[in-house]
Structures are given as C-alpha cells and as structure tokens.
Design goal:
384 residues; mainly alpha; globular
Length: 384
C-alpha cells in the first residue's frame, strides 16, 4: 500500500536521494570529461541523444536541494512554531563554505602560478568578487561560460535561494510561498520567450537576475510544500506513491533528454522533480535497490566534493592522457571518475566532516542518532 501522510512525516532520512545525487554527479563528470578532451570529441558528443545532456545533473541537484531545504524548514516550523534564521544560515555556511572557499583559494594560487599573462587570469580576477560573494550569475551572464571557476554559477544560484527562501517561509504561510515560487517560475519563463527583454535590457542586472532563476529549485520547493500538506499529499500520492512511480519518471526524464531543443528544459525540470517526489514518498520505490547500492550511496554522499574538485582532477590528468593515453573520453571517464571520487572522499573525511559535526549543533530537528552524516541528502524529522 502507498504510505500515509503520517508515515511520510516519520521518515527520518531520504536514503534514495543519495543515489539520485550520484546519478546527477556522474552525468556532470561525464560531460566535463568530453569537454576537456577537445572540440572534436565534444562536438561528437553533442550529436548523441541523451548522452549529450549529462550536465542536466545540475538541475537534478537543484530539485533535490529545493525539496530538502524546504522540507527541513517546514518541519522545523511545525515542531517549534518558528524558523530560526540564525541556525539555518549557520548550518548552510558550515556545509557549503569550507570546501567552496578552500577550493577558490587553491584556484587563486594556481591562476597566479600557471595562468599569468594568458588573459584567462584577467577574466578570473575580474569575476573573483562574484565568486567570493556568490553573485557571479548577476554579473557574468552566460558570456563567461569558459571562464576559470565558472562552475561557481550553480553555487551562486543555490546560495541566493538559501538567503531568501528561509525568510520567506518564516513570514509567509499557507499558499503564499507556493504562489511566490510560481511567480518566480513565470519570470524565468518570460526571459526564455523574450518577453522580459521587451521591458528591461537583456544586458541589465535585472535581466540577468531573472535569467538566473533556477526553475528546478522552485519546483522542488513547491513539491516539499505539497507533500507537507496532508490534503495535497493525498492528492498526488496516487501518482507518486506507487512502486512503479520512480522507474516511470526516471524513464520519462531520460526520454526528455533526447531532444536538443531548449524548450525541452521545461519538460525535463518537472520530470526531475517528479522523480524526486517518487523517491521520497515511499522508501521501497522501484529503483531504491539501485539508489541505495553502497557504491552509489557513497558517490552521493561525496558528490559535493566531486562537483567542486572534478575540474582540478581533470586538469591534473589531462597532461597524462595527452602523453600516455588513453585519448578517447570513453576510456578517460572511468579514470577521471575514480580520481574524483578519491579526492572528494579525502575532502569529505578530513575537511567537510568536522564542519558537518559542528553543523549538527545548530539543528532544530536533531535525530536520535546520525547514521552517516550524509549532508544535504538527509533530513531529520520532528518527533510527534
């Protein structure tokens, strides 16, 4: 039988999401390996349906993040009657900032040592204030897609969401947060169809801020609010609460990756968030056996470090590949993946874990025990 709302609210850790995060980071690394292999290989990848869209894994991360953060805040509010903004911002800071700023500091050193006088150093330091303040997307737009440390755009999007959303949920109740998220999605849609460009210049800060709205985060936040409400939970349970729901939406997401037109993003984003919903409503979903497989779960646990450090690993491996091989991205991928998992595992063990333990002190929803410090893929549930 599909779980009841009370059973869903008693779930302590959404274990399937570690595996879902693993699938996401595998797609991102797949895309990175082909990109650094050179234009010839990358152009070949861009002709392959589905496989060319590995970078869509970032959008899946966004959907997971929107759902988890909103769920955490709503359950804190349910248990304590309020949301502690101080504790929330401290928790987010301890999770994101140590590795982020350590990696950025390493990039500063490497750019000064290896890129001086190439022109790329000037671009990097031009955008460094944006990297430091998580406002890179507001000032770079998409014209800097080849800039060093460009992957910081996704962290900027998430930090902007964290900064605003906790305060919104603390002030607004009922359907108002959902309405606000729908409004944000509408603004992003207006940029995609060119309607917003008729009102504000496309090179203005206002347009870049609107174009930087991450629809999957908004959809993840809406999903969390719907599942938190018993009335809406019962309405969507017939669709998302079956054992076949997760396999169905995984297949739908994969199928939506085949077309190349940008408009298909508006199909992929909802499909990704429906997949997240199907994975969290019931623990025994149809792909849980795979998502909870220990290697997948571990990759999901260290996925943040993999995302932050993968480019550095590839930069170290590229000279070796160029000289000794292998030269084809299909053969480079498992080597790059193994190296990235190793480095991310060390980062998680020695850099991130001490801050994650400190982070637990500021949790309003402390579980009776923490099984594995899974980071963002685990949400403690308030006790009845």
């Amino acid at each position: 039988m599909p779980p009841s709302h009370s059973q869903f609210m008693r779930i302590r850790f959404f274990d399937s999401l570690d595996g879902l995060r693993a699938l996401s980071i595998l797609g991102v690394i797949w895309s990175h390996v082909w990109y650094v292999s050179g234009p010839a290989y990358y152009d070949t990848l861009m002709k392959a349906p589905v496989l060319r869209n590995g970078a869509f894994g970032v959008s899946v991360f966004f959907g997971i993040s929107g759902f988890l953060i909103t769920t955490l805040l709503l359950r804190e509010q349910l248990k304590h009657g309020r949301i502690s903004l101080r504790d929330f911002y401290i928790r987010r800071t301890l999770r994101i900032w140590p590795l982020y700023y350590a990696t950025l500091a390493l990039y500063v050193v490497l750019v000064l040592a290896l890129q001086r006088g190439t022109g790329r150093d000037q671009i990097f330091f031009h955008y460094l204030p944006g990297y430091l303040t998580f406002t890179y997307t507001w000032f770079a737009g998409w014209e800097a897609s080849g800039a060093i440390f460009n992957f910081a755009w996704s962290l900027s999007v998430e930090e902007q969401f964290y900064l605003i959303w906790a305060g919104v949920l603390r002030v607004l109740r009922g359907a108002l947060p959902v309405i606000l998220m729908c409004l944000m999605i509408g603004i992003r849609a207006a940029t995609d169809i060119g309607a917003l460009g008729r009102i504000v210049p496309t090179d203005s800060l206002a347009w870049r801020m609107a174009a930087g709205i991450a629809v999957p985060i908004c959809l993840g936040a809406i999903l969390a609010q719907m599942l938190h409400s018993e009335r809406w939970f019962l309405r969507i349970r017939p669709l998302l609460g079956q054992r076949w729901s997760a396999p169905l939406f995984l297949f739908a997401l994969i199928a939506s990756l085949a077309p190349s037109a940008h408009i298909w993003e508006w199909v992929r984003w909802p499909a990704a968030c429906l997949l997240v919903g199907a994975c969290v409503i019931r623990e025994d979903n149809g792909i849980a056996w795979f998502l909870r497989w220990k290697p997948m779960a571990y990759i999901g646990i260290v996925s943040y470090g993999m995302y932050m450090l993968n480019t550095l690993v590839l930069d170290c491996l590229k000279p070796i590949f160029n000289r000794f091989g292998p030269h084809h991205p299909l053969l480079q991928f498992p080597i790059a993946l193994a190296g990235t998992v190793l480095v991310a595992g060390l980062s998680y063990r020695f850099l991130e874990t001490p801050f994650l333990r400190l982070k637990e002190r500021f949790s309003q929803l402390r579980p009776t025990k923490s099984p594995k410090l899974t980071g963002a893929a685990s949400v403690p549930v308030p006790q009845a």
